[in-house]
Amino acid sequence: MRIETLMREARAAAVVFAAIAAVSALGGVLWGFLAPAEQLLVVDPDRGAALTGESTHRFDAVAIFVLFGVVVAVLSTAAAWRWRRARGPVMLLGLLAGSALGSSLMRWVGEAVAEQRHTRPAHPAVHSIVEFAPTVEGWPALLMQPLIAVLVVLILTALSTSDDLGSGQFLPFGGKPRDPAVFAPAQYGSAISYGPYGGPGGNGGPSYGPRDPVVPFDPSDTDRAH
User: Fold this and answer.
1) Which of 59, 118, 137, 161 has the fewest CB atoms within 10 Å, counting from its CB?
2) The pLDDT of residue 78
3) What is the CA radius of gyration of the chain?
4) CA–CA separation, 140 vs 144, rounded Å?
5) Residue range 5-55, pLDDT digits in tens
6) What does the alpha-carbon distance between residue 216 and residue 22 come to, in Å, rounded to a whole number?
7) Which residues pair with 41 in a beta bridge?
8) How far is CA 222 from CA 95, 134, 214, 216, 217, in A?
């Protein structure tokens, strides 16, 4: 039972891994079209100077890349969470690995697309303006997508009201929990009696001894007394 459950969760994690990688590559294509290029003025042969305000586009490119990574991480994690039977540690590993690979694919694909869109001559003429394709500088930008994916999983787990996260698997890799032991309190005695009227503790009040026996009335006894 546990082997079958583990294999099923592994297949689900593989599907999530591949889906996140594909969506991240598509995000890289969009980033390659949206990220702004940096324009430079050629002042000397093979030497250029950035135009006013163009140097800020290097930050803009990284900011857009991080935003794309956050959006992909939130949407992919929310979609994977809808797969109830696959919720668990294996799914978390698939999300983390897929997001880590996806951020690298987004950078590689995005920079390749941007390089094709903003080509520059090998030896531009002096006083001409050339464009430098945007790039993602620094590795911290690659960590944002997997970190956001893990954070969303933690938030969804904390908001879940089920011990099994709604997956139906109470134990790791399948299985049902043992029935909990029930400890019933011992019976306790009471001096109060809820017997018939006139009994101990009854509505007729307390009785301190046995009741007198009931003797039937005989008229002949009255004649004998006279």
Assistant:
1) 161
2) 92
3) 41
4) 7
5) 778 888 888 999 999 999 999 999 999 999 988 877 777 776 666 666 667
6) 103
7) 49, 129
8) 105, 129, 18, 13, 10
List, for residues 113-142, the tens digit of each pLDDT value: 998 887 776 777 776 777 788 889 888 899
pLDDT digits (tens, 9 = 90+) for 80-122: 988 877 787 888 999 999 999 999 999 999 999 998 887 776 7
Quote the CA–CA distance of 150 and 156 in Å, as a whole number: 10
Full 3-state SS string of the chain:
CHHHHHHHHHHHHHHHHHHHHHHHHHHHHHHHHHCCCEEEEEEECCEEEECCCHHHHHHHHHHHHHHHHHHHHHHHHHHHHCCHHHCCHHHHHHHHHHHHHHHHHHHHHHHHHHHHHCCCCCCCCCCCEEEECCCCCCCHHHHHHHHHHHHHHHHHHHHCCCCCCCCCCCCCCCCCCCCCCCCCCCCCCCCCCCCCCCCCCCCCCCCCCCCCCCCCCCHHHHHHHC
Phi/psi-derived region of residue 205, left when phi > 0, alpha when psi is between -120 and 50, beta in every other case: left
Residue with tokens 């008229």: 219
Q: Give one word for 53, left, alpha or beta, with left for phi > 0 and alpha for psi -120 to 50.
A: left
